[in-house]
Amino acid sequence: MTALLTTVLIFAYLALCGRGWMAAFNVRIGHARSWLIAPVLGFCLNVVCLLILNQAGLPVAVLARPLGAGLLLFSVGAITWRRAWRARGLGLFALAGLALLAVSAGPMLSYGFNWTSYGNDDMTNYCLAAERMLRHGFYDVPTVADLAGADYSQFYWFMHVAHLIRMGSEIWLAGAAGAIGRPPVEIFMPAIFALAAAQLWALGALLFAAPRHRWHALL
User: CA-to-CA distance for 201 and 214, rounded, in angstroms?
Assistant: First the structure.
């Protein structure tokens, strides 16, 4: 139950961050549509902030909780200032998100953070790279001892720093793990389902171009 609740809390945090950003800049696209797009915007905001601070030399384990608390405080303040708490019309969309979790994430109720679903090599890469970002600044050069087995996560220096291969998923997973206080391999499933729900709501936001399209968006 704790793992499933963690999924819901991650999603709610992303929604608040995204809605707060829109409120701060007075973006007006309708109350319901704003909340629908908010989780994806919150994800983007977190990834950008985490990347900037990690590239400045801070391990994500050090910055995750202060950054998360700061973004949440800012977002709640901006939403309150703009009086943007109104969320009328979101009830059925919330049920759609819960249906997603009920259908696809049910094993979390039985296995909690131990459930890894389809644990392929991509998941391993994401989790191990996230471990590097948790413990190191982005540009920390691996030592010979690291590469000899002391810290295998440092091999991702070659992927992310030397070859500049995308690293948004890894830094986000590291941030979620650092904020919650569990290793990336345990946070992977709650994090990916929170993003699946955010993706579902983002699709609704794209279709919800006008009030008359509400049922199209819901379907």
Answer: 12
CB 67 within 8 A of CB 181: no
Q: Are 35 and 15 in contact (CB under 8 A)?
A: yes
Distance CA 40, CA 18 (A): 7
A 10 A CB-CB count for 9 gives: 13
Cα separations (Å) of 72 from 18, 65, 106, 204? 10, 10, 28, 24
Q: Which amino acid is at 29?
A: I
Task: Report how far residue 159's alpha carbon sits from residue 164's, in angstroms, rounded to the nearest whole number.
Answer: 6
Q: Give yes or no for a contact between 169 and 93, defined as CB atoms under 8 angstroms apart.
A: no
Alpha carbon separation from 39 to 72, 122, 203 (Å, rounded):
13, 24, 12
Interacting residues of 20 by C-beta distance below 8 A, sequence separation 6+: 71, 74, 75, 76, 77, 78, 79
Q: Assign residue 144 a region (left: φ > 0; alpha: ψ between -120 and 50; beta: otherwise).
A: alpha
> Please, what are the averages of pLDDT over each run of 10 residues along the chain (219 residues)?
89 96 91 92 97 96 96 96 87 85 88 88 93 96 93 95 93 96 94 93 85 77
d(CA 153, CA 146): 8
* E strand or H helix at 212: none
Q: Are 67 and 49 in contact (CB under 8 A)?
A: yes
